[in-house]
Amino acid sequence: MAGRAGAVVAALWLLVRPVAAHVRYVSDEEGGPTGLDFIVDVLSDPLNAVLLGGGAVATLVVALAYLQFRPARADLAVLRETLSGYRDLIPWMLRLSLGLPLVGAGFAGYFFSPEVTWSVRVFQVAIGFFLLFGLATRAVAAVGLLAYLAALPFAPDLLLAFEYVPGFIAILLLGGGRPSADQMLNQVAQTPGTIYGRFDPIHRLANWFNGVVEPYERYAPTVVRAGLGIAFAYLGIVEKLLAPGTGLAVVEKYDLTAVVPVDAGLWVLGAGLTELALGVALFVGIFTRGGAAVAFLMFTLTLFGLPDDPVLAHVTLYGMVSMLFITGSGPLAVDNWLREPAQDAEAPGSEGVAADD
């Protein structure tokens, strides 16, 4: 895992810039060439073409070299085993990564995304606190998901916060986990002789639903991985490649060309293509943990490189890529076809964990 993550991070380092992620959160300026015209304009400079092409080739070479030699096998085996011990904390991690920004969004006066300034404070704060406490977790996640989907046709800018969709679905699959109010109350309800157990029928319904959902829990990493892949691809295409004016304004606003002296257009094009490539890689499930590490790096660079970028808008993304770092790609991923023969004999329940290390 660490070897693959390090290899991919090193290969993509020159293409990953603080201008990546939600540039519209820090600039509203538009204009300039768009789409294919923008790409042709940037690549018409031979130096830009060489830098961009060289980065792509270097990434491919590093990935193929890793698959051929697979270094540090013993180290990776220990790390996989260590990470597998954190899997029971994933529901708690997801609840925090959705609950905290929802509470913050409610008090800040926006609806999921800072671009949608609807004041629904009580609703979002309530959803957020219920998730944080882990009370009626699956029902609350369903309400949050339906609210997002119902509002989407009226506020397309909600696509900037698309990560909430796989996040809510993953919580529906996994439940509240532990520590949570659901787990605590269920334990009391199932203990013979308790007053709560005699009068509360909810836990029986919850246990029945848990049994229905349990066979599909293994797909939670797949849902998160595919959802994040869509989110990254959308940001790369729509925010950078098709509408580079905002990204160019961010580069100028923070004088990013003084940090790395390359053409401003290359900054935006590199960020857009990196997000698109990362999105596709996550969606198909190749080098998943490496992709999660790159995504984590992108968020961190954005937060430190763009000081007025809203931190809460990235908390959900941080939590979800951290989940993928623990679980790996999950089922239905290219990583599972690339696994080494020795990894096929791993313990039950580790599916998807070893395949993408």
UniProtKB/TrEMBL annotation:
Sequence intervals crossing the membrane: 49-69, 89-113, 125-151, 158-176, 276-299, 311-334
Keyword DNA repair recorded: no
Keywords: Membrane, Transmembrane, Transmembrane helix
Source organism superkingdom: Archaea
Keyword Hydrolase tagged: no
GO CC annotations, alphabetized: plasma membrane
Protein name (database record): DoxX family protein
